Write the structure tokens for this entry.
Amino acid sequence: MANKYSILRSCYGYTSFREGQEIIIDNIMNGRDVLAVMPTGAGKSICYQIPAMLLPGITLVVSPLISLMKDQVGALNQNGIRAAYLNSSLTQRQYGLALSNIRRGEYKIIYVAPERLMTDGFLELASGLDISLVAVDEAHCVSQWGHDFRISYTHISDFVAGLSRRPVVAAFTATATKNVKDDVLELLALDHPYEITTGFDRPNLYFGVVQTESRIDYIRKYLSENKGKSGIIYAMTRKNVEKIYSHLLAAGFPITMYHAGLSDNERALAQDDFIRDVKPIIVATNAFGMGIDKPDVEFIIHYNFPLSMESYYQEAGRAGRDGSEADCILLYSAADIHTAKFLIENGVDDAEDLDAESLEAAKKRRYDKLDGMISYCKTTACLRGFILRYFGESPKTEKCEKCSSCRGDYELQDVTDAVRAIRMAIDVTGERYGAMFIADFLHGTDNGRMGAMGFTHERGFGMLESLPVSLIRDVIERMIEEGLLIRSGGQYPVLAISPKLDNYLASGNRMTVKVKKAQKKGKSTKQTPLTLRMSPADEALYERLRKFRRDTAEKRGVPAYVIFTDSTLREIAASHPRDMLSLMRVRGIGEEKAYRYGTAIINIVRAED
Ligand code: ADP
């Protein structure tokens, strides 16, 4: 008889449950409602899919992400699980066909968009079904406190109440503050649910904060050293996205881009190319990612930092969902602080609904969150520890040994002399210029304008020649933040010296900034752990397997990862399974996958050996 372990093994090809999964499954099987808060990538789907297969009736999965349903259902079908979806993307004919199949009892799992639930057609259908479980994905959408409120979610409880027999209701979300959790409990009318919040740690992710002279050069180098990997590069503005995109495209990388300024078609195409690995690298604003379920993303690089740690962790968390090693690297530039503040001042998007007082409070909350983000960039302590503490957990160890701080990729540099030089430069140029100008002046960049205005002969020009312009800018931003300099508002902000600065220097304070350690000659510049290095032979096999996966995915019209994830292919390439039994020991290969593709894979391995 099938049980949770045999299904985990045979349908998914996994040998053990991850934190929280088993106990959630047990509670659902015992007829108890569940409220589960699990971070992105923790494996929420299995928590309701396995009960769906074990319970006598049908499971409805309510999900707001229409674009995801098709892929999720495709993945289930690939694993030999009969599932269907009902949403607005289906034609009338497809919808009718799905309904009659459902009536005939063809499916165990039905994904449905929340706005469908209360339609007459669906209510009529539901009244004739034996529904054992209603799983609510992205449950925070029910709450106005959440970041993604959907009115249709508030009708879910009415739908459940209208059924002749109440099914178990299980709610899942990745982010829930106390307010959101209370709303989920109340508005979904959960009945004494089993509540669980699993740890926020993602042990397979490497975290890095990098300060570099040229962010674009850093990315180019990273991509060259990590060829064949799939990843997302996030930038704050549309303009940056386009700049990075054209640069990397010209350098020959398989890249696409995504931002709100593109047409619906262009965006759909970019997303599709990325998911199907046609263009495994995407550069995007933070509009990209919600509803992208690509488990084999191997790096997330932030060109600019997001406005809060919540956003950062959600975006970075899109890496390594399949449990493989992945990198989350944030490229820190102090100049971004200015942009972030500008966005907060001008971009409080819910402004129309707020009175002046609430608007100020909202701004303050955003500034507080920004402070958290900036502290993350600057801390010299363990980054993982910082993240966990931020989300209210205590890290198990002081050092994780898997972040740029623990790896000691950085050192502190005393920049007090630069602080003095900056003071002098602002003074001699008459407090009339902005940060960029002062940095250029001190570095001695003669961009024509500087010479034409006679500044190249001024005292102090080129005084900090040995420091990169970006570092001088960083010091200026630090000084502004600490109130030692004052930046005026307006279109062309200029710097002035704050009275605090002279006190600061007179009291013997010293300023330090975090800089990347100088590279030792002959040593690899790579600072990230990354996945196992493959031998050339394994690499060749891996490429053959990827090609097979691409062709198969194309033929079946599903994304490549639905066939096999990268980590599964990598394990095959490393272990060279030559028979079915050894193939089935590979993580991610269950009976159905072995049955469908086993012979082809083994033939590829044998041909290569
Ligand atoms: P979430 O919805 O929580 O973000 P998913 O349900 O999409 O996460 O799962 C993320 C990835 O982890 C998927 O590729 C899934 O197959 C994989 N996964 C889930 N449970 C396990 C497990 N017990 N062992 C190994 N991989 C798992």
About this structure: The CA atoms of residues 274 and 280 lie 5 Å apart. The mean pLDDT is 87.
